[in-house]
């Protein structure tokens, strides 16, 4: 494996200005948040900026991040909110 393949990946949740939640993955969290706020991130967030990072989880590779993203996206909003609150209180 190369160094690039070993780099950490992140699942993240953003709170948009309309108070909705957006879940995504990246290997560079700061760059990705900046892209969302510039309007060049996901189509969903383009009209909902600025966004606020409310949750991150580090995973070992892209595959693991994609699997975790799918689990989170299938959660109800209330479940996501509880996960966010539990992380904030830790």
From TrEMBL:
Q: Which residues form a coiled coil?
A: none
Pfam families found in the cross-reference section: GIY-YIG
Which domain of life does this protein belong to? Bacteria
Domain (GIY-YIG) spans: 7-82
PANTHER family given in the database record? UPF0213 PROTEIN YHBQ
The entry's family comment says: Belongs to the UPF0213 family.
Q: Output this protein's name.
A: GIY-YIG domain-containing protein
Origin species, per record, is Candidatus Thiodiazotropha endoloripes
């Amino acid at each position: 494996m190369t160094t690039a393949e070993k780099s950490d990946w992140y699942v993240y949740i953003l709170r948009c200005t309309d108070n909705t939640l957006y879940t995504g993955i990246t290997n560079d969290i700061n760059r990705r948040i900046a892209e969302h706020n510039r309007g060049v991130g996901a189509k969903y967030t383009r009209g909902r900026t600025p966004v606020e990072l409310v949750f991150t989880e580090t995973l070992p590779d892209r595959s693991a991040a994609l699997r975790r993203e799918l689990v989170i996206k299938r959660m109800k909003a209330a479940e996501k909110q509880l996960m966010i609150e539990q992380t904030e209180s830790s």
